[in-house]
């Protein structure tokens, strides 16, 4: 499995402009995208989610686990290790998320213009 890239979620990226939220907080969709290729450790998730504080990332992971979208596996041997992976329910979230990303990419210019207009008015 490929390592997650630090620029996976650049600030000027459709994922940050997407007005459609998935999950229980603003970071949930990004966490799910990080887990789409397989289980990851907390430290791996921190690489593309560097704008998220460890505390907030932990909260997001707990909420996603509570909602049945991810599963947390703790291993104690040979060393303590915790992995996060999508559940089948979490996997089923990927198709609607992809559709939302495609919609955002199609309407990228309109979304940018609307945000710029709003910032000028404020």
Automatic annotation (TrEMBL):
Keywords: DNA-binding, Transcription, Transcription regulation. Transmembrane segments: none annotated. Residues 13-112 form the HTH hxlR-type domain. One of its GO terms (molecular function) is DNA binding. This is Helix-turn-helix transcriptional regulator. It comes from Kribbella qitaiheensis.
């Amino acid at each position: 499995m490929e390592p997650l890239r630090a620029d996976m979620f650049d600030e000027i990226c459709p994922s940050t402009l997407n007005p459609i939220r998935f999950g229980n907080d603003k970071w949930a969709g990004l966490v799910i995208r990080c887990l789409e290729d397989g289980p990851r450790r907390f430290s791996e998730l921190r690489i593309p989610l560097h704008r998220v504080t460890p505390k907030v990332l932990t909260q997001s992971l707990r909420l996603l686990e509570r909602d049945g979208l991810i599963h947390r596996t703790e291993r104690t041997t040979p060393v303590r290790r915790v992995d996060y992976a999508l559940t089948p329910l979490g996997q089923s979230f990927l198709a609607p998320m992809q559709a939302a990303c495609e919609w955002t990419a199609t309407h990228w210019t309109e979304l940018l213009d609307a945000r710029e207009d709003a910032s000028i008015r404020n």
